[in-house]
Amino acid sequence: MPKVSDAYKEKKRADILRHALACFGEKGFQTATIDDIALRSGMSKGAIYGYFESKEEMYIRLMESGTEEMFRMLRNDFAGLPAVDKLRTLIRHYRNQELTSEWVGAGRVHMEFWIHSARNEDVKRVMVGRYERFVALVEEIVEEGKREGVFGDVNAREMSDLFWAAADGIFLRITVLDRQELYEKLWDDAEEMFLRTLSRNGDGAAL
Amino acid sequence: MPKVSDAYKEKKRADILRHALACFGEKGFQTATIDDIALRSGMSKGAIYGYFESKEEMYIRLMESGTEEMFRMLRNDFAGLPAVDKLRTLIRHYRNQELTSEWVGAGRVHMEFWIHSARNEDVKRVMVGRYERFVALVEEIVEEGKREGVFGDVNAREMSDLFWAAADGIFLRITVLDRQELYEKLWDDAEEMFLRTLSRNGDGAAL
Amino acid sequence: MPKVSDAYKEKKRADILRHALACFGEKGFQTATIDDIALRSGMSKGAIYGYFESKEEMYIRLMESGTEEMFRMLRNDFAGLPAVDKLRTLIRHYRNQELTSEWVGAGRVHMEFWIHSARNEDVKRVMVGRYERFVALVEEIVEEGKREGVFGDVNAREMSDLFWAAADGIFLRITVLDRQELYEKLWDDAEEMFLRTLSRNGDGAAL
Amino acid sequence: MPKVSDAYKEKKRADILRHALACFGEKGFQTATIDDIALRSGMSKGAIYGYFESKEEMYIRLMESGTEEMFRMLRNDFAGLPAVDKLRTLIRHYRNQELTSEWVGAGRVHMEFWIHSARNEDVKRVMVGRYERFVALVEEIVEEGKREGVFGDVNAREMSDLFWAAADGIFLRITVLDRQELYEKLWDDAEEMFLRTLSRNGDGAAL
DNA sequence: AATGAATGAGTTTTCATTCAT
DNA sequence: GATGAATGAAAACTCATTCAT
Questions:
Q1: Which positions in chain B touch A127 (Cβ < 8 Å)?
Q2: Which residue of A22, A46, C163, D197 is surrounded by the most CB atoms within 10 Å?
Q3: Inter-chain residue contact B176 with A118, CB threshold 8 Å
Q4: In this structure, are residues A201 and B174 in contact, taking their beta carbons and an 8 Å threshold?
């Protein structure tokens, strides 16, 4: 007979995660303390432990979160578009992102996820699972483009891996340099490079 | 024991740094303790502090180190080569790297450098300075290729930025996935993609 | 346990300070460790840090404490008395103090305050401020005595300085020798000497 | 068959002590490190341990030192003087001392001796022994004055104790406040007060 | 004798987690 | 359910002392 509804609890959990993300983005996972998160959430330390078992759990949940929402949104924007435009939409979704301190902070946390993954099997499982979905997304777009006859005979999986490598590389850089115009140029150049590379004949006709 | 040569001290410092790099690679900068480093170095904690003022200093020295050596080596290998081959040499230098645990560990530390940089001005200065040299290296190669008439009319600086973004993205991935064959494929694809993109007319004639 | 009253917290703080004073008295500020204080307080080290930011802060608070209480008490005892009796009251307040180990310990800490003050500007400010109040106290008594026509034409400020110098000298000695009868004799002699010196004509008529 | 003469060793010991005194004066016994002393002495840490068994020993030797010299000097200056002038000579010896940083530093160390004495029986023995000689010095002067008929019927021992209490109180204060003119005034007032108190009839006729 | 690198016990301080209220 | 005081295991760093050279 819980005193509060599940919805309330879910909302609280999401609340805490949001504040935790801000803290981790600002100070890093190790450096941000539960006190920081409690303070920012306007809750007590004890309350937080009522929703999450440990700091590590908050971290894991954060890694899992966000993906669904993002995919839902993209699926919507992609509806009915040819492969080239889907890829463009994806790229411009990132390219047009304003480098607010929240977003850059979240980017830093994302980078930390990768590092942290390398050293912890549990975290790695989650992270790789998440990553798989992103790779599959672009892989499917590329396959679709090939079927449409617009993309050449490339290895879709490898191209997707390389695409996300470049994307993470851009995020990594911007995480430190924090320069909007550099960020946009990098994505513009990446867009052109990838579309040209994927194009049938490699001549960028698809552009 | 005292009144040891400068060479001895230099060797010790390098020794400690090597062991520290291994510890940081394994556990991460924050998680690795001075005790870990001391244990692995076979020295006492106090001895470590005789060579480095703080854990942070070891970190900074580690960031600075390696770069010179790498540049010297590349300069040697580059001697007399046309731009395209210089770029290929650089890419293959990475591509042919065997993913030993030491190397992957070092890669993880390199990734941490970026993250850490984002939150610490001192570290950032060193990191950005170091990064500048890498960007300049590829930028010069691209300019050279343009002068040779092999590369098209691209923005050398931006292409260099993008190149290193992709490189760091590959490292980031491999840091977690640790799969040799994926690593090689990513570099092979990157090589082709960049050379094609840089080529005059973008048709990859330079390949 | 949480959501305790402010009074509870104040009491805890005072508790810790009391135990800290005992530890400092016994071993000295530098030698007494937080562990000592925690052990004696029956609390954990962490709990101590919940009330004080650092050992230094405990020290400063200890320096500030006690003064108010003492002044309130004296003001009470002084009410309505002529200057000579005020001075006598003050002197006898000290003279009749039993040399318990706590009191002697506190005296030792007081002496350490002086030494420590000499080498630390922050501590010095607090210590000099505190000292000022004591000097003003006796200075006022002397001025009052002069107005009453009982004390001669002495420099009140200087006499007050000298009085407290002698007092501290007595404490310093007793801190080591810890002999009750010597302590009392020193104060008796000091009483006579000062009253005689202050007396109009210097003939001790005021006695 | 020592390779160096005893005189050389003695000189070295004195040298080290001199520098140690400066270090202790500046930073305090606990805070000053052997490295500080070694640096200031221009010797190695190891060499210092060839002359002193421990930091504590240096401290003890320092406590013992200086006294002889001082007594020899005073005995010289006292030769043939009546008691009143001996006392005056003693007081003015202090009063005319310029407050150089070395002298103030030495004063601080002297204060530390007292504090330290309170907590260590070995140190206490040395300190009390040293103190005894100072008390005896003034006690004898007072007795002499009584025999000369210039001083009244006071308890010589107690007056001597009180005299040194006041002296130490003045040093304690100056150790922190470090104000030459205050120092001199305190001694001038002390001189007048003590001579008046000691004078036959207490009327300061001896002045 | 002198040197100064090495040792390691000891110190302050932090912080994830627990749990009495 | 919420609170935040309490815990205590680390962790970074210091420094008197030793001892190989």
A1: 176
A2: C163
A3: yes
A4: no
* Cβ-based contacts of D115 with chain C (< 8 Å): 28, 108, 111-112, 115, 175
Residues of C with Cβ-Cβ distance to D119 under 8 angstroms: 26-28, 31, 108
Domains and CATH numbers, chain B: 6-61 (1.10.10.60), 66-202 (1.10.357.10)
Distance D1 CA to E3 C1' (A): 22
Which residue in B115, B168, B196 is closest to A202 by CB distance?
B196
More confident residue, B199 or D205: B199
**For residue B111, which residues of chain A lie inside 8 Å, CB to CB?**
111, 114-115, 172
Listed residue (C12, B94, C113, C24) closest to D173, CA to CA: C113
How far does B119 lie from chain A, in Å, by closest CA? Answer: 7
Q: Which of C165, C170, C94 is nearest to C135 (CA)?
A: C165
Ranges of residues in chain B with a pLDDT under 70 are 1-2, 201-207
According to DSSP H, which parts of chain B are helical?
6-27, 34-41, 45-51, 55-64, 67-78, 83-95, 101-119, 121-147, 156-177, 180-198
At D206 the pLDDT is: 53
CB atoms inside a 10 Å sphere around CB D183: 21
Reported as a pLDDT band with limits 50, 70 and 90, residue C192 is very high
D133 or B66, greater pLDDT = D133
Preferred mutation among A24, A59, A117, A119 to probe B, highest tally of B CBs within 10 A: A119
pLDDT score, position A121: 85
CB contact under 8 A, C166 and D164: no
Q: Is the Cβ pair D111, C162 closer than 8 Å?
A: no
Between helices A156-177 and A180-198, what is the axis angle to 10°? 170
Q: What is the pTM of this model?
A: 0.88
Task: Measure CA to C1' and name the residue nearest E19.
Answer: C1
Pick from C98, C97, C109: nearest CA to C21? C109
Look at residue B204 in the predicted model and tell me its pLDDT. 59
Name the band, by pLDDT with cuts 50, 70 and 90, for residue D1. Answer: very low
Coil vs helix vs strand at D151: strand
Question: What is the model's pLDDT at position A4?
Answer: 67
Chosen for mutation from B161, B198, B199 (greatest number of chain A CBs closer than 10 Å) is: B161
Asked if A64 and A21 touch (Cβ cutoff 8 Å), the reply is no
In angstroms, rounded to a whole number, what is the distance separating the alpha carbons of residues D173 and C114? 8
Task: Give the whole-angstrom CA distance, residue A141 versus residue B184.
Answer: 23
The mean predicted confidence, pLDDT, of chain D is: 91
Pick out chain A residues at pLDDT < 70: 1-4, 201-207
Q: pLDDT digit string (tens) for D141-192?
A: 999 999 999 999 999 999 999 999 999 999 999 999 999 999 999 999 999 9
Q: What is the pLDDT of residue C122?
A: 83
Give Cα separations from C105 to A126, C127, C183 (angstroms): 60, 18, 15
Q: Which of B143, B153, B163 is nearest to A190 (CA)?
A: B163
